[in-house]
Amino acid sequence: MYYDVIIIGGGPAGLNAALNFGRSMKRTLIIDEDKPRNRVTQLSHGFLTQDGVKPTEFKRKSKADVVKYNDVTYLEAHVEQIEKIDKEFIVKTQVQTYNARQVLLATGLREHGPDITNFNDFYGRSIFYCPWCDGYEMRNKKLAVIYSGEMLLHMVKLLSNFSQELVVFTNGEKEVLEADKALLNNKGIDIYTEPIARLIGNNGHLDGIELIDEQIVSVEGAFAKMYWDTQFDFLNQLSITRDGDGKFETDIYGETSVEGLYVAGEAKDNFAGQLLDSAANGGMIAKMMMMKQIEEDF
């Protein structure tokens, strides 16, 4: 079956894009594996009228808004491969092949946490990465900052807005800038460079961090550096230009180096953001895509 656009990913960017396509009577297929990055998140914040919403409920409502339009179809499936032959995209799932004039990548990001035993037992409950998303809920608690490198001091500064009790853990990274050490010491913020052996707590609630030397530091929560990429196997047949950090290179309209292939939301930024940001970007890119189609057809 031929579509005006196939959207890969059914998160806020993909669904808001689909809403705009549906309202413009563009034949649209959403292919969504339904394994969102935020599946560990209990509640999402910072979105007007949706503050405190469960991500699963947000998605349920979003899908209902989208599929009421006759030109939009939602398919839960895994994309195996995308090819482009002449001006047409061929999108293959495990069981079927679909064709489209344009493709929008709204996959979000592949996410990896730090190499810490039992990290995932606490992530999304008492360990987070985004101060704007979860800093308010963790306010006035003793917080671990599990970071290293150039972003360490930046994250400490951001979290100082929410808590006056911060402890830094570099998880084995011994190289810390002397200026950073001096500033942390001046602020009374301890820094531990030993590797983290394990996290201590129950039912997702972090109580302490045990270092490899068996020292235990009590904390009430943590913010950790996460790692993201968009190196999806199904893109291997497409020669997409990326920058030195692996981010898709796009023009101001969200179009990649492959004509007709666009990217929106977190996949475009190569950085995890809030629901509101991804949804807004998905809607904007959808309009750009449609304008190109309409210009060509006029």
Q: Name the helix and strand elements from N-terminus to C-terminus, one letter apiece.
A: EHEHEEEEEEHEHEHEEEEEEEHH
Number of strands: 17
Name the structural class: alpha/beta
Strand count, sense and closure of the main sheet?
7 strands, mixed
Task: Please state the CA-atom Rg, rounded to the nearest Å.
Answer: 22 Å
Ranges with pLDDT <50 over ≥5 residues? none
This entry's quaternary arrangement is single chain
Residue share in β-strands: 25-35%
- What's the tally of helices? 7
Shape: elongated
Task: Provide an overview of this structure.
This protein is α/β, with parallel strands linked by helices. It has seven helices and 17 strands. Strands 1, 2, 3, 4, 5, 6 and 17 form a seven-stranded mixed β-sheet that branches. It has a five-stranded parallel β-sheet with strand order 8-15-9-10-11, covered by helices on one side. A three-stranded antiparallel β-sheet has the order 12-13-14, with no helix packed on it. α1 links the parallel β1 (2-8) and β2. α1 (12-23) packs parallel to α2 and α1 packs parallel to α7 (275-297). The longest helix is centred in the last third of the chain and has 23 residues, at 275-297. The relative contact order is 0.19. The model has no long low-confidence stretch (mean pLDDT 94). Keywords: Flavoprotein, Oxidoreductase. Homodimer. This is NAD(P)/FAD-dependent oxidoreductase.
